[in-house]
């Protein structure tokens, strides 16, 4: 673990989240469902209600509340440009969520494909970065190739990527981190390989963004999507695209909407209250770090977040070895924690994932069970029709005490089977 990073203080951060005070049967709830959606700090809640209280309006009008809506959109765009390190705010478009953005963008991008072309998707991805591309490929007569992962540690077989790329390949749709098993992708390498073959890269960073620094310029991806409700904000999706692509591609839009990015990618009326919350969520993240600019604060904040979450992961993985019958999927090597998020898919011998999740839920410990739309992951692991796995997802607002409470509850459940 890096030692020159100041430790994150979970106590002062937790105090900002009203939902973290929730009690279940007299005990404080433990929110380990962050990969499905995180809680929001007070400043995000205030931003949403503040927008509505100030006076709502559509944007683009010549009066006060409409100008306010314009400002809200522009500030949210700039905030997301800082978070992702976009070259300019026009590279950021908003939409309902990542899935909707990806469906509509896949429609636009696939207009550039010819029958006989090829695209690549991965088995480590959430279905929202698979099905839109499968359907677009079907519509255009395009062949789909699959990049597999190694089931032993659930990391992508990037070494196989060059063998899938050829002169007919148009797109690589790839995850930055798996929402099921937490494995991160070496995106720098994947993008270099794809670009060397002239292939565009669309990155799903929905699960990655709350846990590590996104830098679209360093990654050099062509497109990247994320969802603000996974990083402490409201339910809004974000699409980044290199400006030249976003300007030149044809968007599905109504007349006479502008033909320029980003407006042409934002169909209908946006949720301005949510966009107020987008800025507040980025400001919250930035407040975890220090520095002259918001981007500098974000860089430090995400380094602190990552170091803290690696500490939680280590505590969980070490403790997990003592829970009878508990199997952890994905990277379990303590030396390789930098390559995963603190999201763990597990099984407990003798119990279905639903039984484990329900038992933990009764103790006030919130975890998911099933496939969480990582359909291809569960299929590859042979678990899709077996109830999937239990997903334990830590975030920076979780504590060591919560990790221990989870491990104690799992141990108690495991021992109840033995009796
Ligand atoms: C990795 C990943 N990709 C995509 C999605 C879909 O995101 P949204 O709910 O914004 O459509 C999710 C949601 O859980 C996810 O975890």
Layout of secondary structure:
Blueprint: H1 10-14, E1 23-24, E2 27-28, E3 30-31, H2 42-54, H3 64-84, E4 92-95, H4 98-110, E5 118-122, H5 131-140, E6 143-147, E7 149-150, E8 155-156, H6 161-164, E9 169-175, H7 187-196, E10 200-204, H8 216-219, E11 223-227, E12 237-241, H9 243-248, H10 272-286, H11 294-320, E13 326-328, E14 343-348, H12 353-362, E15 365-366, E16 368-370, H13 375-380, E17 389-393, H14 400-418
Parallel strand pairs: 3-15, 5-6, 5-9, 9-10, 10-11
Antiparallel strand pairs: 1-2, 4-12, 7-8, 11-12, 13-14, 14-17, 16-17
The structure holds pyridoxal-5'-phosphate.
Please provide a written account of the structure:
It is a single chain. The protein has 419 residues and is of the alpha/beta class. It folds into 2 domains: 10-40 and 304-414, Aspartate Aminotransferase, domain 1, CATH 3.90.1150.10; 45-286, Aspartate Aminotransferase, domain 2 (3-Layer(aba) Sandwich). 39% of the residues lie in helices and 16% in strands. The strands form 5 sheets. The protein has a 7-stranded mixed β-sheet with strand order 4-12-11-10-9-5-6, with helices on both faces. A 4-stranded antiparallel β-sheet has the order 13-14-17-16, with helices on one face. The two termini are 40 Å apart. Bound molecules: pyridoxal-5'-phosphate (PLP). Residues 35, 97-99, 126, 128-129, 179, 204, 206-207, 227, 237 line the site of pyridoxal-5'-phosphate.
